[in-house]
Specification:
single chain, elongated, 92% helix, mainly alpha
């Protein structure tokens, strides 16, 4: 079996385990990741607006 496939399955199993055992922490983590992505997109938009 391909090692990348094994690692992907193990990662997926860990994510599911984390969500099932600690749903509040998992939700907080997802919220913070999306918040960080939103901040990054906002900063890029501000940069491109300043170019014009």
């Amino acid at each position: 079996m391909n090692i990348k496939r094994v690692i992907a399955w193990l990662l997926l199993a860990f994510i599911i385990f984390f969500i099932v055992t600690q749903p509040e922490t998992a939700a907080s983590l997802v919220r913070s990741v999306f918040s960080g992505l939103g901040d990054a997109v906002s900063a890029l938009a501000s940069f491109f607006r300043s170019l014009v």
